[in-house]
Amino acid sequence: MSITTMANLRTARDAQLSKTDYLLLADSNLTDVETEVVITYRMALRDLPSLYTAETVSEAVLPEITGTPEFMARLGHG
What we know:
By secondary structure, this protein is an all-alpha fold. The protein has 3 helices and no strands. The longest helix is centred in the middle third of the chain and has 16 residues, at 32-47. The mean pLDDT is 93.
């Protein structure tokens, strides 16, 4: 998705937040470190619109979640 407007940015951000909602449920079986990674990632996503203006939104880059290969595999990223 090409991010050309603030609405596009919020839509892309909201989609990524939705994809990680389940990770903060009590039965997600994440370690404390993995939970912190998810919380930090989601905070970066929530903060994203405040980092850009209508003039600079085309420069926006969505953050990526990172972690151990095992963690990334459990998320379906590897």
